[in-house]
């Protein structure tokens, strides 16, 4: 379990499970019988949308784009080009997920 990619595996069959588990326990940050399991999702780009809640409402910074290669972070940039509808959806999700 690591944002750095350490302890990360791609499983192509059930036969890969034990080896991946062992590697995650040895190489990941968490260990102790814990892992994060993710699935593959096709997407056009990955963003971070920094959101600030204040007395007058919510403000959003320009979206930050990210690129990974083979599961490892490579670079980020700002702004990430997005359609107006994608940006509005991202802002709506971010606003709903704010801690109140």
UniProtKB/TrEMBL annotation:
<dbReference type="InterPro" id="IPR013815">
    <property type="entry name" value="ATP_grasp_subdomain_1"/>
</dbReference>
<keyword id="KW-0436">Ligase</keyword>
<dbReference type="InterPro" id="IPR003135">
    <property type="entry name" value="ATP-grasp_carboxylate-amine"/>
</dbReference>
<protein>
    <submittedName>
        <fullName>Phosphoribosylglycinamide formyltransferase 2</fullName>
        <ecNumber>2.1.2.-</ecNumber>
    </submittedName>
</protein>
<dbReference type="GO" id="GO:0005829">
    <property type="term" value="C:cytosol"/>
</dbReference>
<keyword id="KW-0547">Nucleotide-binding</keyword>
<dbReference type="GO" id="GO:0005524">
    <property type="term" value="F:ATP binding"/>
</dbReference>
<dbReference type="GO" id="GO:0016740">
    <property type="term" value="F:transferase activity"/>
</dbReference>
<feature type="domain" description="ATP-grasp fold ATP-dependent carboxylate-amine ligase-type">
    <location>
        <begin position="2"/>
        <end position="96"/>
    </location>
</feature>
<dbReference type="GO" id="GO:0016874">
    <property type="term" value="F:ligase activity"/>
</dbReference>
<dbReference type="Pfam" id="PF02222">
    <property type="entry name" value="ATP-grasp"/>
</dbReference>
<keyword id="KW-0067">ATP-binding</keyword>
<keyword id="KW-0808">Transferase</keyword>
């Amino acid at each position: 379990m690591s944002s750095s990619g350490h302890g990360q595996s791609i499983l192509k069959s059930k036969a890969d499970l034990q080896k991946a588990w062992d590697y995650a326990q040895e190489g990941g940050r968490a260990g102790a019988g814990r892992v994060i399991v993710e699935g593959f999702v096709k997407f056009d780009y990955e963003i971070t949308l920094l959101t600030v809640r204040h007395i007058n409402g919510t403000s959003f910074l320009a979206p930050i784009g990210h690129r990974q290669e083979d599961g490892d972070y490579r670079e980020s940039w700002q702004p990430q080009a997005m359609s107006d509808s994608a940006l509005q959806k991202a802002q709506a999700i971010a606003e709903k997920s704010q801690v109140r």
